[in-house]
Amino acid sequence: MNYTFVGEINMNDGQKISVDAALAQSFKQLACEHPVEKITIKQITDGAGVIRPTFYHHFSDKYGLLEWILVQEILLPIQPLVENGMINEAMLIIFAKMQKEKEFYMCVGRMEGQNSFREMVENWHPFASYRYDRGEDERKNGKNQWLTPERIAAYYSQTMTYIIMTWIESGMEISPEELVEVYGFMITRSLADVLADM
Question: SS3 for 144?
Answer without folding.
Answer: coil
